């Protein structure tokens, strides 16, 4: 590809409803960074940005939301990060587009991971939207919004002005979608063809939008990547009064209004001090969506809203998720079958091994038996239930599983986030897809499948297309799953019995591992 760059008074200049913004041109794309879509006042709904005179410089990423703790960089080969300046003035978005014309391209609206507590729109290197825009002829938008107690802290007991403070971060996302509705035509996009998509916490935010009436009509379809996680990202229920009073006592404040202005670092430090006792007592600790009139609650508890049952969804996860981060004591490449069986019996006991081994062989005949100990159920089990529930509502929900091993530590089962570069057409931005492979072009072929299904879905609401096996939608009792690996195929209900038994038998073992995973895994 011939490289090009242009940044001058005439390049990448667009008028929005707040004023002119100027980005830059790079390799055939127009790129805009850090455009403010709303203004944040702590614990309140997002407010309109004031119109500006002159031209807004959109060549720089904007602030990202402050975190509750200072992350220690680790695991960068698995999940390569970009760390960035933080500030509460973080309501901004980034745009990649092939042209500011009237072509009305599909819009891919990216919601970042990190649960509802952490992350940013530029955190993972593969979040870069250039290739998705270039090869998909699409407009890509990524958004920052408020997180943790800035975005999810219920203070509704203290007055109407805080009625939805427990979902301020969700209101930010809705404000960004309204900005897209009102402005994206000027960037070459179709405001009636918006696909909201996200991974991990970003995938969960897609479901949160489905359950938020104010978001209705602002998007056409959704993609949930490793975002159905059950109780791990369940709602924060109950009143936030106990948390507010504990914070005011810790900070020696006389009223809730002072929580709005206290230095954020002091607020975060106080929160981290008072949270453990409240959590141990089963009290509200925030940092997750809060069911109320604005957000109806997670569908596993409340059911999906009838108003969104027509929305097509693409839902999936990866084979190993969190378990693939754990160091393995076994050399997968050199173990004989009987050694693998012995290792499984040692970890799961004779009875557990006897139940799981035949189910695993049936579901994954292509895999080594030892991979049973890396199989995810924390995501996959609630995902199966989610897809069944959604499939009873409509015939426009599709299931996939990313099943391609990656060449770290001699070959590792797919881990949480490892599929992101493939869907974004960004395998050249991270190291691991380019290790030794059985077939030199394997990573490129898997990227073409993941990216192609995503773009076909974004264009039409149906992921079926050239190069993709005939892929039926989920229906009541039937989950035809696309396995994305070196021999893509559709398998109906292929792992349901395995996952049910695995969750029951492996659950206690996994519970002992989760603390270590939580301390050593970045989103």
| Outline | globular
Sequence of strands across the biggest β-sheet: 1-4-5-7-9-8-10-11-12-13-14-15
SS field, number of helical segments: 12
Main sheet makeup: 12 strands, mixed
What gyration radius follows from the Cα positions, in whole Å? 23 Å
Low-confidence stretches: none
> N-to-C terminal Cα separation, in Å?
32 Å
How would you state the average pLDDT, rounded? Answer: 94
What is the number of beta strands? Answer: 15
Tell me what you see in this structure.
This protein is α/β, with parallel strands linked by helices and 523 residues long. Helix content is 30%, strand content 15%. It has twelve helices and 15 strands. The protein has helices at 130-136, 148-151, 168-183, 201-210, 241-251, 264-280, 299-302, 337-363, 380-391, 420-423, 442-460, 496-520; strands at residues 5-6, 13-15, 20-22, 24-26, 29-36, 55-57, 92-97, 105-111, 139-143, 189-199, 221-225, 313-318, 397-402, 480-484, 489-492. The protein has a twelve-stranded mixed beta sheet, sandwiched between helices. A three-stranded mixed beta sheet has the order 2-3-6, with no helix packed on it. The longest helix has 27 residues, at 337-363. It starts with a strand and ends with a helix. The mean pLDDT is 94.
């Amino acid at each position: 590809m011939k490289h090009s760059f242009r940044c001058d008074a005439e390049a990448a200049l667009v008028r929005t409803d707040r004023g002119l913004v100027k980005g830059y041109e790079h390799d055939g794309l127009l790129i805009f960074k850090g455009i403010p879509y709303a203004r944040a006042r702590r614990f309140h709904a997002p407010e309109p940005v004031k119109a500006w005179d002159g031209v807004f410089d959109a060549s720089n990423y904007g602030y990202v939301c402050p975190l509750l703790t200072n992350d220690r960089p680790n695991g960068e080969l698995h999940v390569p990060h970009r760390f960035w300046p933080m500030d509460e003035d973080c309501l901004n978005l980034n745009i990649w587009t092939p042209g500011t014309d009237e072509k009305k391209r599909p819009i891919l609206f990216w919601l970042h991971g990190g649960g509802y507590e952490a992350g940013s729109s530029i955190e993972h290197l593969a979040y870069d939207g250039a290739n998705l825009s270039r090869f998909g002829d699409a407009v890509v938008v990524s958004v920052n919004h408020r997180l943790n107690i800035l975005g999810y802290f219920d203070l509704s007991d203290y007055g109407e002005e805080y009625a939805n403070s427990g979902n301020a971060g969700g209101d930010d996302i809705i404000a960004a979608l309204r900005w897209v509705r009102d402005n994206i035509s000027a960037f070459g996009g179709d405001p009636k063809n918006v696909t909201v998509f996200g991974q991990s916490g970003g995938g969960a935010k897609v479901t949160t939008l489905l359950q938020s009436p104010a978001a209705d009509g602002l998007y056409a379809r959704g993609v949930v990547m490793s975002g159905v996680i059950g109780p791990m990202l369940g709602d924060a229920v109950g009143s936030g009064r106990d948390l507010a009073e504990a914070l005011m006592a810790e900070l020696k404040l006389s009223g809730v209004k002072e929580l709005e202005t206290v230095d954020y670092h002091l607020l975060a430090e106080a929160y981290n001090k008072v949270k453990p006792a409240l959590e141990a007592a089963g009290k509200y600790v925030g940092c997750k969506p809060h069911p109320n009139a604005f957000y109806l609650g997670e569908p596993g508890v409340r059911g999906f809203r009838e108003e969104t049952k027509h929305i097509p969804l693409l839902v999936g996860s990866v084979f190993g998720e969190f378990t693939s981060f754990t160091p393995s004591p076994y050399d997968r490449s050199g173990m004989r079958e009987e050694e693998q069986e012995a290792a499984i019996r040692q970890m799961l006991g004779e009875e557990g091994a006897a139940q799981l081994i035949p189910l695993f062989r049936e579901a994954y005949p292509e895999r080594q038996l030892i991979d049973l100990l890396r199989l995810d159920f924390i995501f996959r089990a609630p995902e199966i239930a989610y897809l069944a529930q959604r499939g009873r509502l409509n015939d426009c929900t599709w299931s996939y599983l990313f099943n391609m091993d990656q060449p770290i530590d001699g070959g590792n089962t797919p881990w949480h986030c490892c599929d992101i570069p493939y869907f974004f057409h960004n395998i050249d931005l991270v190291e691991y897809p380019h290790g030794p492979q059985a077939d030199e072009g394997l990573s490129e072929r898997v990227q073409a499948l993941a990216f192609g299904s995503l773009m076909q879905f974004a264009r039409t609401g149906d992921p079926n297309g050239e190069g993709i096996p005939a892929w039926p939608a989920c229906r009541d009792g039937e989950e035809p799953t696309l396995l994305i690996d070196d021999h893509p195929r559709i398998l109906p209900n292929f792992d349901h019995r395995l996952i049910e038994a695995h969750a029951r038998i492996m659950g206690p073992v996994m519970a002992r591992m989760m603390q270590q995973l939580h301390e050593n895994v970045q989103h």
